[in-house]
From TrEMBL:
This is Lipopolysaccharide heptosyltransferase 1. Pfam families: Glyco_transf_9. The keyword Transferase applies. Its main location: membrane. Its EC number is 2.4.99.23. GO terms for molecular function: ADP-heptose-lipopolysaccharide heptosyltransferase activity.
Length: 345
C-alpha cells in the first residue's frame, strides 16, 4: 500500500503525526508513505522509517514573491511532483486552508476532516472522503484517529510510538567541548505570550551550573541568538548555540541529560527523542497540544486566565504584551519541577 500525507507545518504539528504512521505500519506491514511538507521542516518526516519520498512546498516564500514564483515555474514543478505517483490513499492531516489548497491541486479523492471536526472552514470542502474526530483531544490522538479512518482500521489504543531513532545522528561541530552531562534550555517561542523572562532563564542557568550541569541554549534566528547570549552571559558553563539543522538539534537532544522548554517545536523534538523534559505552559493548553510521550512533564501557570490563546498578553498589567502568567513562574519552581526527571547522582 502507498499513501500520500499532506501536512505542511509547523514543527511540533508534524511530529504529532509520526505515531499515526507507526500505527499504520503495524496494520499494514510494508506500507510506504510520501509526505508533502514545507521546505523549512523537510527533515521531520524523514525521521520515520516508513517515509519514501518528500515533496516540498515553499508557500511562505511563494506568497512573498508570487510573480517570480509563477515566472520561474516553481508552481508548475510542484504540481507535477504532487501528481506524478499513484496512491491507494491520500490524506490531509493538517486540515487548514493551506493544506486544503494543496489537496485541491492533487488529482483523486483526498481524505480529511469533516465540517464538524475541521478547525479552519471551509477547508473541509476540499475533502471527498470526510473523517470525523473529536477535536477536544490531544493532537497526537487526533492524528492517529485520522489515519485509522483513512485506512479503515480500528483506532489504536496502544501507547504512541514516534519510531524515530537519533542514536546514529552526528553531533554538530561546536566551538566548545560538550560536557558529559548537559541540559538544553529552549527559551525561544513563536508567540510573545509563551516567552519566559530572560532574568528567569538566567537564574535557572545558575541553578543548573551549581548542580554540576553544562547548559546549552539554542536559537533559530539572529534575534533568538542574541537573547540566548544574554541568558548565557551569567555563567562560563552556559553556551548560546547558533541556528542548527533539525537533525543536529535531534542529536543534541538525544544526548542531553534533560531539557527545559518553552512551548515550541524543540519541546516536541525532546518528546520524539524521549529526552526528559519539562515544558512551560501559559497561553496554550497542554491537554490539546502539549508535549506527548515518555519522560515529559508540564508546568502550567495557575492564573485564572490560562489558557487564553493570545499571541500577546491582554491583561492590563502586562508590559509590552509580555505574559503575566509566565513572569509569575519562579525559576526555583521550574528547577524543582525538573528534579523528578533527572537521574540520581
Amino acid at each position: 500500500m502507498r499513501v500520500l500525507i499532506i501536512k505542511l507545518t509547523s514543527m511540533g504539528d508534524l511530529m504529532h503525526a509520526l505515531p499515526a504512521l507507526t500505527d499504520a505500519v503495524r496494520e499494514f506491514p510494508g506500507i510506504i508513505f510520501d509526505w508533502v511538507v514545507d521546505e523549512a521542516f523537510a527533515e521531520v518526516p524523514q525521521w520515520h522509517p516508513a517515509i519514501r519520498n518528500i515533496i516540498t512546498t515553499s508557500h511562505r516564500r511563494w506568497k512573498k514573491s508570487l510573480w517570480k514564483t509563477l515566472r520561474d515555474g516553481e508552481l508548475r514543478h510542484f504540481y507535477r511532483q504532487l501528481n506524478t505517483s499513484d496512491y491507494d490513499v491520500i490524506v490531509d492531516m493538517q486540515n487548514n486552508l493551506k493544506s486544503a489548497l494543496v489537496s485541491l491541486l492533487r488529482r483523486g479523492p483526498v481524505a480529511g476532516l469533516d465540517k464538524a471536526s475541521c478547525r479552519e472552514r471551509p477547508a473541509h470542502l476540499a475533502y471527498k472522503v470526510p473523517i470525523h474526530v473529536n477535536p477536544q483531544q490531544h493532537a497526537v490522538e487526533r492524528m492517529r484517529q485520522i489515519m485509522a479512518q483513512a485506512l479503515n482500521y480500528p483506532s489504536p489504543t496502544t501507547p504512541a510510538d514516534y519510531a524515530a531513532d537519533f542514536t546514529s545522528y552526528a553531533l554538530p561541530t561546536l566551538d566548545f567541548r560538550l560536557a558529559d552531562n548537559y541540559l538544553l534550555f529552549v527559551h525561544n517561542a513563536s508567540w510573545l505570550s509563551k516567552m519566559w523572562p530572560v532574568k528567569h532563564w538566567q537564574r535557572l542557568v545558575l541553578l543548573a551550573v551549581e548542580a554540576g550541569y553544562q547548559v546549552l541554549i539554542p536559537s533559530g534566528n539572529q534575534a533568538e541568538y542574541l537573547r540566548a547570549e544574554q541568558i548565557a552571559m551569567v555563567s562560563g558553563h552556559a553556551y548560546a548555540l547558533p541556528r542548527l539543522s533539525l537533525n543536529h538539534m535531534a542529536a543534541l537532544l538525544q544526548n542531553a541529560t534533560a531539557a527545559i522548554c518553552s512551548d515550541t517545536g524543540l519541546a516536541h523534538l525532546a518528546a520524539v527523542a524521549s529526552t526528559p523534559a519539562l515544558t512551560l505552559y501559559g497561553s496554550t493548553d497542554p491537554n490539546l497540544i502539549g508535549t506527548f510521550g515518555q519522560h515529559q512533564s508540564h508546568l502550567v501557570s495557575d492564573k485564572a486566565c490560562v489558557p487564553c490563546y493570545k499571541r500577546g498578553c491582554p491583561r492590563p498589567e502586562a508590559e509590552a504584551g509580555l505574559p503575566v502568567c509566565m513572569q509569575e513562574m519562579a525559576p526555583e519552581s521550574v528547577w524543582h519541577g525538573l528534579q523528578s526527571l533527572l537521574p540520581a547522582k
